[in-house]
Specification:
294 residues, 8 helices, six-stranded mixed sheet, alpha/beta, Metallo-beta-lactamase, Chain A
Amino acid sequence: MLDIQSFYESNSGTWTYLVADTASNTAAIIDPVWVYDPVSGMTDESFIDQVLNAAGQSGYRVTWVLETHAHADHLTAAQVVRDKTGAKIACGKGIRAVQENFSRVFNLPELPTDGSQFDRLLEEGDVIELGGLEIFVMNTPGHTADSLTYRVGDAAFVGDTLFRPSFGTARCDFPGGDAEALYESISRLYQLPADTRLYLCHDYPKEDEDPVCMITVEDSKRNNIHLTGDTTREQFVSMRTERDRKLGLPKLILPSLQVNIEAGAPPAAESNGAGYLKTPFNQSIEDLIRGEKQ
């Protein structure tokens, strides 16, 4: 039987999921968060430990960490989970393009850009066995080039592709993002059975609201403020492009991507024993990817 437990990390507005086959007591963690304070440079494992403790209390053995994409708003705790459980880490094959782009941003010519930091690279049609359950992989690019959706039973974990209907859809202005591709990806999700549960990667509730982790295909298709079942491609691309022009960068994009393209590995220690994250000075991400200098 499928068991889904949801955990909300409020600093980044992120949902992490514990997904388990109760018959075999085998579990996967989807989009684990490693809390990071950019002011002090310190990490905090108490959130991911909460997820791991829940797995232990349920008698589950964590065998997989599944990333929906390389996140730009939080550090992944994938490596932390692998170190503590021996779980394998999987993400989309599109991570290679992300690694190529951001190896230029952070001037990391020695960084392997073949995805070898991950235990398995996934593509459309792949299946991950979780005990007696099968997790089916869908390519759902648009927010990023490496975005995936994981389908198991009547549930689909959609990453940043969709938000709750009142928040709409993901931005498409990151390197590798594409509004037309996102339209196609969401259209595919809308073709799933109407009662399919779509588990979200993020929610940003108001002060008096509880965060929402799940919506149905029917709810989003009827009520999503950016893309309903009747929205045309032209309408969506125009709206998304216009909206994205006005958005600022996530505050953790630079530390997040340095760690996330390495499957959650921390920066290597230098001669004094400390690891360091880079911040480009007075250079835009776009210019650095293009190899342009100011």
